[in-house]
């Protein structure tokens, strides 16, 4: 089967979990004998052909006001202008048309379309090729990709969000298939009328996660090292974690690893100022980081599509404290491998921290269950097989129309 994958970025340019998962899928499909290629973006103009681990990768220059993956956050007017063009970016269709002409794929698998826009869907459909859309975030519902605004992730979209997504719902119902990386994200789109006439599937992401952090049980009165690893931003709940840790009264430290926009990093550092127990580690190798903490916290305020960082923590024999939002509820099982807390109850996170610190029996029970509870998520073969079946089904169904 000849497959073209379309995503905003591709290896070695990684912005998040979507790119990591896509690389595993693409290389897994190639290893099974499928002919695969990738169309991604770059900040410089023009179309460039690259080779990554024997896979043909096209990198197309983004036609818009700025490169969205830069560290600095542009001004409000500049961002608005960017999103207006990104609502339906006709300028990017030329690249899609050219690559489709050269590759002639049997099926196209779309992933994160930020920068590309749903203009990609129309171009592929004009070529009479089946389209499978994989949902990694909320980009198709909101330009900020999170549906999080003014401290809330509620069911109602703002006027601007609806305006910038006019026509998306109708187009989504003309695709061949859609895949959610969790049941939560698929249901979220369905609640807005998306993909109601499209074949729907759930495929949980997977990672190769060696057991590099052996099971370590706690004893009474032992200090607790709390860890956070990921993007440093408000939507990820890092400020909430800092506040709750400072107020919890636990004997321990908080290690925060990751980077974010410059203004977000400054804000979070200001929140932690004066508390020597809080350490900002910057970029950290995940396996090394997990070996040096006792519990992982994933305090997201938005509806996380899945939350692979929680899976990584669990696979490293760590109990996980997480928000009861989105796909996190599909990986973190309250009282079994971790504790779920509610961002709408600000003190719930502090209570969870005190529980795992004070109740050694609880901590040890959660730690013992952690890795076994995410066996599904550390099987890349399982993930690749499921995508292989979905793409073959989509190709066959389209050919039969």
TrEMBL record:
Coiled-coil zones: none
Glycosyltransferase subfamily 4-like N-terminal domain boundaries: 16-205
Stored Pfam families: Glyco_transf_4 (PF13439), Glycos_transf_1 (PF00534)
InterPro entries in UniProt: Glyco_trans_1, Glyco_trans_4-like_N
Residue stretches making up the Glycosyl transferase family domain: 220-371
Tree of life domain: Bacteria
Listed name of the protein: Glycosyltransferase family 4 protein
Protein source organism: Parapedobacter deserti
